[in-house]
């Protein structure tokens, strides 16, 4: 416990984020535990009525709009910082569990973190994001947004949801405060109903006029172009779906063999560390190092490691390369928005190098590449044996945490993401996945 307290105290950003999250959670619990929704609403209405400019309807809308913006902004910051804090603790806990060889708890933690990230993905509005201070290249300057496009995106984000909610809250506010106004509103709705019912014949003529305009658009050149584009997009979408179908069997094989490799790596992690230490620092096998026990399990020959090659990795990467190619990229990203699992895997496979996944899944070729290191000579230049041991131990610890353990964790994360992807894909592409939609299409003749 003292170690965790020290870890939190040393990271000021983490400490501030945790305090912010706890304050938000406590304030929310206190408000909803102490007051009913009706009491909260009456308090808001009373507070808003104290402002002079809310005497006019547009002033009331503006005030509610500002309040909605503030609430949404705080909501987004809360989930954004919760994601950041949870990932810091997740990184430390996964490292600890790998070191203690707690495979079951490690997998459960990875599954929990995946679920938390998925929940955060759906809860956020996406107004807050990480900024980058890296220098922009020429291509970044060329494709950057124009001022009009930037203002349009911002206005769409600010005025779509907040404005609609502000209008609804203003209407509810007035109807709550003024019974006479509510009666007038109900009378207005009744009069509108009478008008539409008595003016049915005139409305029929209007409907006919609208239909004529639609037919004109349908036969016009612009209409033909739009229909052709829609048909081409549908064909492109069908091709994308077919690629996803072909990935199912490949990924299942990749998961089975990858799980076997990672479980084996987890069991013989110390031997792998010894192999790396001896290869990096051959002097550890000398007689004066024998009693220091840098090598816990003795030296291990690389041929003794029983890692499996996974040829499906190359095929899987090729299929994802098709999905993310220039001609399919936009349609693939649009299709992936259907489910978080699809977004997650498609984001992961933006790196279209098979070597990247071979190292995470500890294939034979990936292991050889990971341990293709040169002998270090600077240790031999040190005079003291204790100094040599300290430097070797520091290097070994660094490799253990930031290479070996990290690759094991990333490998298990990759396998679970692929499993969730297969699960979501089977649910989406199953023949019974769209019963209601299929019934509606048959009813309307659009099957």
Task: Give the tally of structural domains.
Answer: 2
Per DSSP, the total helix count is 19
Order of SSEs, N→C? HHHHHHHHHHHHHHHHHHH
What ranges have pLDDT less than 50 throughout 5 or more consecutive residues? Answer: none
Q: Globular, elongated, flat, extended or rod-shaped: what is the shape?
A: extended
Quaternary organisation of the protein chains: single chain
Taking the alpha carbons of the first and last residues, their distance comes to: 62 Å
How big is the Rg? Answer: 31 Å
Number of strands: 0
Percent in strands = under 5%
Provide the structure class. Answer: mainly alpha
Largest sheet: none
Assign a percent range to the helix content: over 70%
How does this model look, in words?
- This protein is mainly α and 447 residues long.
- The chain folds into two domains: 2-129, no CATH class; 227-444.
- It has helices spanning 2-10, 12-34, 37-49, 57-99, 103-123, 138-143, 147-159, 161-177, 179-198, 200-219, 221-267, 269-280, 312-323, 329-336, 340-348, 354-360, 364-370, 385-429, 435-444.
- It starts with a helix and ends with a helix.
- The model has no long low-confidence stretch (mean pLDDT 80).
Which helices and strands occur, and which strands form pairs?
Layout: H1 2-10, H2 12-34, H3 37-49, H4 57-99, H5 103-123, H6 138-143, H7 147-159, H8 161-177, H9 179-198, H10 200-219, H11 221-267, H12 269-280, H13 312-323, H14 329-336, H15 340-348, H16 354-360, H17 364-370, H18 385-429, H19 435-444
Helix pairs in contact: 2-4, 4-5, 4-8, 4-18, 5-18, 8-9, 11-13, 11-18, 12-18, 14-15, 15-18, 16-17
